[in-house]
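Audit log entry. Action: structure prediction of a protein-small molecule complex. Ligand: zinc ion. The ligand was supplied as SMILES and no pocket hint was given, so placement is left entirely to the predictor. Protonation state taken as written. Sequence taken verbatim from the request; no trimming, no tag removal. Recorded inputs:
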Amino acid sequence: MLLCDCHTHSICSPDGNVPILEMARAAKAAGLGELCITDHCDLLNGGGERTLSYDWAPVLEQYAQARQLEDESFALRLGLELGGAQVSPAHAEAILAGAELDFVIGSVHNKSEALGGGDFYYVSYTSPRLCHELLDDYFDSLLAVARLGLYDSLGHLIYPLRYMNRRDGQGVTLEPHLPVIREILAAVIESGRSLEVNTYCGRTVEDWREVLVLYHEMGGRRVTLGSDAHHPENVGRGMAEACALLRELGFGEVTVYRRRQPRGIPLN
Ligand SMILES: [Zn+2]
Ligand SMILES: [Zn+2]
């Protein structure tokens, strides 16, 4: 099967440095069948201030230029990682209407505005108790995003764990949050949307096992794969391992999107 990396960033993201053309070249060199560029559009910035508009012009220009690399075995798709849509659904909707998109990832990177709104990346995780309080806040926001429905795949559900465990070693588990995680997964499943397995930039693929087992038990079948690469050398990273884990857990296919319509690719 030809793998499709459905979550990548370019210089059009605040934390990216590489033109879309270079990311596409890397994807092609890695033998991927599709690359979807999903640059960041967050309704709260890293410091927690509202950012309610988006300039599509640089993305569209770079995307058009990079499409010269497309051929019968490689397609470039245009997506968006829409962060914090629940902050202002009307603005989120207006942003999505600004371009003809193949795919939208719905995600949350920030604390709620009641807690200051800053990105979970910047928090100093000094105790497990603080981690769990912030996870309560995070999952409340993610549930709102999941129910709002302005996305095709729900991005990196375990996002704050990247920083809680990797940087400060708090050894936090999802166990206390399983009830709200169930509600989030139910919203994804009932609306026919997909769950993303973030294969590299998050943590290891194995970290997804618990969530994927629960998702499958609840009837969830649609899964998208994305490396969340911000650099060419990481495009497609972790995807083969993710496919192996999905097969082991009984999933039969991965989902890709074109013009926001899902298509299943058998996992064999
Ligand atoms: Zn993200
Ligand atoms: Zn991302």
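Audit: result stored. The longest strand covers residues 34-42. The CA atoms of residues 23 and 56 lie 18 Å apart.
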